[in-house]
Amino acid sequence: MMIKASSKEYKLLVHQDFSFMETLLQSDNALYVIDKKVYKLYYDKLFSGIDTESLYLIDALETNKNINTALEICEIMTRIPAKRNAHLISFGGGIIQDITGFAANILYRGIRWTFVPTTLLAACDSCIGGKTSLNYKQFKNLLGTFFPPDEIHICPGFFQTLTARDYESGLGEVVKFNMMSGSQGLERMEHELPLLLDRNEDKLNEYIENSLLFKKDFIEEDEFDRGVRIHLNFAHTFGHAFETMSEFAIPHGTAVAIGMMIADRISLSRGWLKEEKVQRMENVLLQIIHVDLSPIPMDMDKIIAAIKKDKKQTSSDLTAVLMYDNMKLRIVHDLKEHEAEEAIRYVYEKIG
Ligand SMILES: NC(=O)c1ccc[n+]([C@@H]2O[C@H](COP(=O)([O-])OP(=O)(O)OC[C@H]3O[C@@H](n4cnc5c(N)ncnc54)[C@H](O)[C@@H]3O)[C@@H](O)[C@H]2O)c1
Ligand SMILES: [Zn+2]
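^ thats the input. predicted complex w/ zinc ion below
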């Protein structure tokens, strides 16, 4: 798959096995930046040949997703004499992607960057679209740029070692893309989610490609998130609130799945979706949401305040992407707090 951005056209390859690693691990002028956990899990199989001078390991923690880590990578890369040919090759999930994308963007005004997503969330969603974000003090994703990798390599073998928590988080985005594509996507999920839950690698590859193809149209049309790309924010307005209130105990994709339940309930009460559709979507979502909401008290003022902190909120009513008319998407700016509250109450009761 090729993806067009204003700065370049970049290549994404989905592999059946790890054989693509052989050439990648022999790249010239490379620094390998790897998620520490991934490095340990795959050391014998993949990484034992990398010498220490060409290696930088990062703990995938939100507290490390900051400018200091990005600057440290830049500093280490100055050791590579062939400046403009320096090549950053990173392995990890969204945290490693965000840090290394930012570093690759600012060093010498942009160097070659290859990314290998090792979480399902990064593979099916964040690896394309070019967003890089760093946290600053208490501000999540405050600093950011648009800088896509030059090459992306996806291999489902990596997803076998994800914890159930991280795997289901990735499925949250897969389910989101399918729901966004309408009734057929919902039907696909009803039939094939069990195979995905079993981590069937052929199915995973199929659904990663579907998800990325769906996203590709939006990001190619609206690279800088000013127009049609905002639709990809479906369910995120509500999801972000749960992600931050839980201090990231609820991972991104799971929060998005919770956000979808809320969005669907609002559409139901507006008469925009039929009960039967909402129920079917909920049945799919409940198979991937395994969280305990009890540490987040159902304090509506706090929850609404967290929703309002979302970057996309600009007016006194809430802005959100909702489904209407048999699963089409629409951006609304007139969502009333009480509508959101009613849906949130329902979701608390349902998932507890
Ligand atoms: N830039 C974007 O467009 C974008 C989009 C969505 C999310 N994000 C960011 O992505 C981050 C979340 O990323 P994420 O959920 O992909 O994962 P992550 O990077 O937070 O990693 C989650 C956990 O999985 C572990 N892990 C990674 N690969 C593994 C593997 N193959 N086997 C076992 N464990 C593995 C990590 O060590 C970590 O413990 C957030 O910081 C979020 O803000 C960025
Ligand atoms: Zn998302």
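The chain has two domains: 2-160, 167-351.
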